[in-house]
Amino acid sequence: MPDPKHQLRQQCRAIRRELGEEQRQRASQAICEQLAAWQVFQHAETILTYLPMKAEVDLRPLLGQFPKKRWMLPRIVPEENHRMDFHPYDPARLVIHPFGMAEPAADLPLVPAEEIELVLVPGLAYDRQGWRLGYGGGYYDRFLSRFNGISVGVAYQALVLEFIPHSGYDVSVRWIVTETGLFEAA
Q: Side-chain half-sphere of 129: how many Cα atoms within 13 Å?
């Protein structure tokens, strides 16, 4: 049976491309400003973020703006049940994963997921209920299904849709941030 999300992914990638580099950069900066002003972000000490790929929202300015926070990055381990491991952010110790994203070197210290307070979740698109359209690997869904902290979906406003199809394996986020604001998922 074909994946019902396949065509939606293609449409969302096209929307993201059509935004253009300059608009994506402006939106990324505004999203960083939204997060920096948010009290939950200000109080969180251990934050899981991501490094952008494929024109995703770029949150890297936050890493430099808040150097005292304990920034974590995921490293995906597809050969072990599509698991994500978590490591401290070290810009000198990044490697390029075969999927194309920069991730921490495998020999960096492992950080237990229980120590993460806030997770900034990349997504191709979200809907207002917090359902996420990812790339189809299920890595974040597996992690979020047992995560007890606060999850924030990160997206361009143009990619906040009315409805994203979801199944029993999908896990919604609690908050969504775009360049126009931050809101609790309905």
A: 9
- Asked if 120 contacts 32 with a C-beta cutoff of 8 angstroms, the reply is no
For 124-158, the pLDDT digits (tens) are: 999 999 999 998 888 999 999 999 999 999 999 99
User: Which candidate, 143, 134, 121, places its Cα nearest to that of 166?
Assistant: 134
Say how far residue 59 (Cα) sits from the centre of its chain. Answer: 9
Structure tokens at 45: 């000490």
Q: Distance between CA atoms of 148 and 113, rounded to whole angstroms?
A: 9
Nearest to 57 by CA among 169, 160, 165: 160
List the structure tokens of 12. Answer: 């969302």
Tokens for 161? 């849709």
Do residues 122 and 112 lie in contact, with contact meaning Cβ atoms separated by under 8 Å? no
Beta bridge partners of 42: none
Query: Phi first, then psi: what are they for 175, rounded to 5°?
Result: -130, 160
Instruction: List all residues 6 or more positions away from 1 whose beta carbon is below 8 Å from its beta carbon.
Output: none
Tokens of 134: 């990812």
